[in-house]
Task: inverse folding
């Protein structure tokens, strides 16, 4: 009898968990955005989760890249973004040193390709896709936005994005890419793995958010300020730079409400 009760309790727990996931809007989990014909490490890492807002259609989608220095972390859907009338896609990707930074950027582009191809099947609009993420995630969002070739490879015009909102992204060459070249972490460089290298006109709207310049990771505010300035100099008008006074590099929560507000503002103008 004890085993029967335990079994029934387990079934009820799983059923309740299933209902909770459904009511929470989690439509898909651990989706392999490369398909299943890849190597074991790719199949393990290159997965995404999809949160869909209930009772909505033609909704906007935030593609969220997690942080972790391109060497760690895990895919996530920030709780604050749930229930805001938008879909959220939490993307996982491969890490250094198992792969090069170039490959990680390609993973980010492949995940965005999946969103463009699949989001309308789930009720969303491919004309309302926003890229975002924290730290290394923000870096990935900016790299595939400014270097158009990553999404052009998938026949996607990156300028069709509704906008991009990176949190405390690296604007010079990412320190993990510098490490691959034997460059010390505090030696700044700008090469093909720097968003600043790809400054161009006619980018989609960009809102850069950082923590307090005196509390952030060394130079992170200044990197973003330089990127914002250069994007404006070449003729982009929809560029913002926001500094969150009193917050250090872990400024994700105070930035999330700003992300939601910014997406809603872009939707009103679209």
Result:
């Amino acid at each position: 009898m004890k085993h029967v009760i335990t079994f029934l309790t387990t079934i009820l727990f799983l059923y309740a968990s299933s209902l909770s996931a459904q009511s929470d809007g989690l439509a898909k989990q651990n989706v392999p955005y490369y398909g299943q014909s890849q190597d074991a490490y790719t199949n393990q890492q290159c997965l995404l989760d999809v949160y869909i807002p209930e009772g909505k259609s033609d909704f906007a989608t935030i593609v969220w890249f997690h942080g972790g220095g391109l060497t760690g972390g895990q895919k996530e859907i920030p709780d604050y973004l749930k229930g805001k009338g938008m879909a959220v896609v939490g993307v996982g990707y491969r890490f250094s040193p198992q792969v090069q930074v170039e490959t990680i950027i390609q993973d980010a582009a492949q995940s965005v390709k999946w969103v463009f191809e699949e989001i309308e099947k789930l009720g969303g609009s491919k004309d309302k896709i926003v890229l975002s993420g924290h730290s290394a995630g923000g870096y990935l969002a900016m790299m595939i936005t400014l270097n158009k070739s990553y999404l052009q490879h998938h026949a996607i015009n990156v300028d069709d994005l509704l906008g991009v909102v990176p949190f405390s992204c690296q604007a010079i060459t990412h320190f993990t890419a510098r490490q691959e070249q034997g460059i010390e972490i505090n030696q700044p460089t700008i090469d093909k793995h720097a968003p600043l290298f790809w400054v161009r006109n006619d980018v989609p709207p960009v809102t850069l958010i950082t923590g307090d310049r005196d509390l952030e990771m060394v130079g992170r505010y200044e990197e973003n300020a330089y990127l914002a300035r250069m994007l404006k100099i070449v003729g982009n008008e929809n560029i913002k730079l926001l500094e969150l006074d009193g917050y250090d590099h872990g400024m994700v929560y105070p930035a999330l409400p700003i992300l939601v507000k910014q997406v809603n503002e872009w939707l009103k103008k679209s």
